[in-house]
Design a protein that fits this description.
With about 290 residues, this protein is an alpha/beta fold. The chain folds into 2 domains: about 120 residues, 60s Ribosomal Protein L30, Chain: A (2-Layer Sandwich), CATH 3.30.1330.30; about 160 residues, SPOUT methyltransferase, trefoil knot domain (Alpha/beta knot). About 35% of the residues lie in helices and about 20% in strands. It contains 14 helices and 12 strands. It is elongated. The N terminus is likely disordered.
Length: about 290
């Protein structure tokens, strides 16, 4: 039988992979037995890793310059899925582990999204001043702990004209597997960083933003709040949109230090939106200057 070029390429790729036969193999620890905190490796951040899930997310991480360490992929998908094959071609120099879907589910403890994981090296994060250089609109997340919310906010920020995202130390890491997957890989497309440990938040962090020329807008339901549709907001040359954690919202100290306290008008007796939903509304309304 004569195989077409695609089939030939698929078989060539599979010749370079290792099928899983031993669940206890040490090279699989990163997928099956290490926690997100262990991957982050706060004591030795230069050795930090993260796991990207699904071909689309992995491709965006590769496009963003992140270095792959190894790949875990469902065997059937490695033969048939075009995006998966594209990832394998770009990861030709790293170990690729494969197994049937049921085996992967047993190994990882969860069903994989489109049957593919990739371990990648973390990178050193830029400083607050560096990340804000040249930005007109930034999002600041204060203690947003839910990785699903973080991922959804990043997706909105990338789509709706934010130039960068700043996170305080209490936030979930954007490179956690769930966060990067929910973001559809936009965590690799929009610049972001954490407020450095040496910079206190909100006092010093807010001072730096003011030095950089940003007006600050706290998203909060307060008596002195202005509507998100207030034209003064859209006319600001530089604006930092600050969002707080689900439930507790922003710190009182943060709200007091902001130039604006901004609310999204509600109807039908609803008091507030989920922070991820609120971020989409805020970024859409405030993401572009109207001078």
């Amino acid at each position: 039988m004569i195989m077409d070029n695609t089939e030939t390429a698929n078989i060539r790729l599979l010749q370079n992979v290792k099928e899983i036969t031993d669940f206890d193999a040490s090279e699989l620890d990163v997928y099956a037995r290490l926690t997100e905190a262990q991957l982050l490796n706060k004591d030795h951040p230069e050795k930090g890793l993260f796991i990207a899930e699904s071909p689309k997310v992995i491709i965006r991480a590769l496009d963003g310059g992140y270095e792959p360490v190894s790949v875990l992929v469902e065997k059937k998908q490695a033969l048939e899925d075009a995006e998966t094959i594209a990832v394998l071609e770009r990861c030709a120099n790293v170990p690729v582990y494969t197994a049937e879907f049921a085996v992967l589910t047993k190994l990882t403890g969860f069903k994989l999204t489109r049957g593919m994981l990739c371990v990648m090296k973390r990178r050193n994060l830029p400083g607050l001043r560096e990340i804000c250089a040249g930005c007109d609109r930034i999002a600041v997340l204060e203690n947003v702990m839910n990785p699903t919310n973080v991922g959804a906010i990043f997706r909105s920020a990338a789509a709706l004209h934010m130039d960068a995202v700043i996170l305080t130390g209490g936030c979930s890491n954007p490179l956690y597997r769930r966060a990067s997957r929910v973001s559809m890989g936009t965590v690799f497309q929009i610049p972001w960083t954490f407020v450095d440990r040496s910079v206190s938040w909100p006092k010093e962090g807010m001072h730096i933003l003011r030095e950089l020329g940003f007006k600050t807008a706290a998203m909060a339901l307060k008596e002195n709040s202005v509507s998100i549709a207030d034209p003064k907001l859209a006319k600001e040359e530089k604006l930092a949109v600050i969002l707080g954690t689900e439930g507790d919202g922003l710190l009182a100290e943060t709200i007091a230090a902001c130039d604006y306290t901004v609310m999204i008008p509600m109807s039908h007796g609803v008091d507030s939106l989920n922070v991820a939903a609120a971020s989409a509304v805020a970024f859409w309304q405030l993401g572009m200057k109207n001078c």
